[in-house]
């Protein structure tokens, strides 16, 4: 394919669109070449992007900061020519063979099988639920869910020196923060925790609490 020089493509939007629609078929390769033409229309010549006389990239040349900036501006708003195009089984096998045996930077490569403190996504063994409660890593706990237990229940168990039953509920009293706030749910000091024998007793407590808030007897 012969690449046009900068002056061969007019900057006028209408004429440029007409030129591209007539001269660039819609195959994958030609779509790629079409975006290359648009990039070269962004006020820099073929020589600026390190090509030889035949339009091939010259091996060993690196992009300058200015060149990368111009290419970025030229491609802004354009969709990649191969976006959404499913890869065939043959293509996937070829890519697999190309990358087979390659080593990447120790700082970025995936460490297969690493868990706990060695895992890249390690956050100190704590996580927050959607409702705002803190769960901690206790993989040997009998009530662990995927290795985690709720921190407020775990602290209460340590305080009473036994495991809690499934019926027992640990309530956040709201000593320091408003009772329904996220901060209160995450205040797991023992003085902010109260144990109920079951959820029925817990709900009764909240019912009485709402009456007090409304000024009812």
Write the layout of secondary structure elements.
Blueprint: H1 13-23, H2 28-40, H3 65-75, H4 89-99, E1 126-128, E2 134-137, E3 148-150, H5 151-160, E4 169-172, H6 182-185, E5 193-196, H7 199-214
Antiparallel strand pairs: 1-2, 2-3, 4-5
Helix pairs in contact: 2-3
Any key phrases for this structure?
217 residues; mainly alpha; 3-stranded antiparallel beta sheet; two-stranded antiparallel sheet; 5 strands; 35% helix; elongated; disordered N terminus
- What helical percentage do the residues reach? 25-40%
What do the pLDDT scores average to?
76
Tell me the structural class: mainly alpha
Q: Which ranges are low-confidence, i.e. pLDDT below 50, for 5 or more consecutive residues?
A: 1-25, 42-47
Strand order of the largest sheet: 1-2-3
Note the beta-strand portion.
5-15%
Helix segment count? Answer: 7
Give the CA-CA distance, first to last residue.
89 Å
Helix-strand pattern: HHHHEEEHEHEH
Cα gyration radius (Å):
32 Å
Main sheet characteristics:
3 strands, antiparallel
| Outline | elongated
Total beta-strand segments: 5
Give a description of the structure.
- With 217 residues, the protein is mainly alpha-helical.
- Among the domains are: 6-75, no CATH class; 151-214, no CATH class.
- Helices cover 35% and strands 8% of the residues.
- It contains 7 helices and 5 strands, in the order H-H-H-H-E-E-E-H-E-H-E-H.
- The strands form 2 sheets. It has a 3-stranded antiparallel beta sheet with strand order 1-2-3.
- A hairpin with a 5-residue loop joins strand 1 and strand 2 (134-137).
- Helix 2 (28-40) packs across helix 3 (65-75).
- The longest helix is centred in the last third of the chain and has 16 residues, at 199-214.
- The radius of gyration is 32 Å and the shape is elongated.
- The N and C termini lie far apart (89 Å).
- Residues 1-25 and 42-47 have low confidence and may be disordered.
């Amino acid at each position: 394919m012969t690449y046009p020089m900068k002056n061969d493509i007019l900057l006028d939007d209408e004429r440029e669109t007409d030129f591209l629609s007539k001269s660039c078929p819609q195959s994958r390769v030609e779509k790629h070449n079409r975006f290359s033409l648009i990039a070269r229309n962004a006020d820099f010549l073929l020589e600026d992007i390190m090509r030889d006389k035949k339009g091939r990239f010259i091996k060993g040349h690196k992009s300058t900061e200015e060149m990368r900036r111009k290419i970025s501006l030229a491609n802004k708003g354009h969709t990649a020519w191969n976006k959404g195009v499913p890869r065939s089984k043959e293509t996937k096998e070829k890519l697999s063979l190309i990358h087979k045996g390659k080593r990447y930077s120790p700082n970025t490569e995936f460490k297969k099988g690493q868990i706990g403190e060695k895992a890249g996504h390690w956050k100190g063994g704590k996580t927050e639920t959607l409702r705002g409660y803190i769960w901690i890593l206790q993989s040997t706990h009998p009530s662990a869910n995927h290795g985690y237990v709720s921190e407020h229940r775990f602290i209460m168990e340590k305080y009473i020196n036994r495991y809690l039953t499934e019926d027992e509920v640990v309530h956040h009293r709201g000593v320091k923060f408003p009772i329904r706030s996220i901060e209160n749910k995450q205040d797991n000091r023992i003085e902010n925790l109260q144990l109920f024998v079951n959820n029925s007793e817990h709900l009764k407590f909240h019912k009485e609490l709402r009456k007090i808030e409304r000024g009812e007897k």
